Amino acid sequence: MSEEEMKKCFASNIEYFIKLTGQQQRDVAAALGVAPTTFNTWCVGKILPTLPKLQMIADYFSIQVEDLIQPLVGRKPKARIELTPEENSILRAYRSADEGLKDAVAKLLDVDREKGHAESSVASVG
């Protein structure tokens, strides 16, 4: 596949994933920390993102890089994990949060995890 074909394929596929998640280009660009104009040049097929940027985009959508640059016609994207739309929304919010909020979430998860271990220990004794 030529570079021009990959650009067209990427443009089509990124449009699909953006619509699938109910977002707009500017939302994804902001979440990825990319200038909206740069992101748009990728989305219209003018420029193909670098491999690290492709990986970042794939990670954002929980897909594989090949799902961005290979035709999706006749096949299903290879999602790493299946998330509900609500879970995707929560994940996007977390990714765009500042580090202080991310630390607070991590602490809450640690407390919840410890609580779960304590409850299972009590259940096994009883």
Describe, in short, the structure shown.
The chain is built from 7 helices and no strands. The protein is mainly α.
Task: Provide a descriptive summary of the structure in words.
70% of the residues lie in helices and 0% in strands. The protein has helices at 3-20, 25-32, 36-43, 51-61, 66-69, 85-96, 99-125. The protein folds into two domains: 1-82, 434 Repressor (Amino-terminal Domain); 83-126. It has 126 residues and is an all-alpha fold.
List the helices and strands and how they pair.
Blueprint (H helix, E strand, L loop, with lengths): L2 H18 L4 H8 L3 H8 L7 H11 L4 H4 L15 H12 L2 H27 L1
Helix pairs in contact: 2-3
What keyword list fits this structure?
about 130 residues, mainly alpha, about 70% helix, 2 domains, single chain, 434 Repressor (Amino-terminal Domain), elongated, 7 helices, about 0% strand
Intertermini distance? 63 Å
Strand content: under 5%
Overall pLDDT score:
82
Low-confidence parts? none
Q: From the 3D coordinates, which CATH architecture of the largest domain would you assign?
A: Orthogonal Bundle
Apparent shape: elongated
Number of helices: 7
Largest sheet: none
- Work out the number of β strands: 0
CATH topology of the largest domain: 434 Repressor (Amino-terminal Domain)
Rg of Cα set: 19 Å
Q: Please give the share of residues in helix.
A: 55-70%
Give the class from helix and strand content and strand pairing: mainly alpha
Number of domains: 2
Q: CATH superfamily name of the largest domain?
A: lambda repressor-like DNA-binding domains
CATH class of the largest domain: Mainly Alpha
Secondary-structure element sequence? HHHHHHH
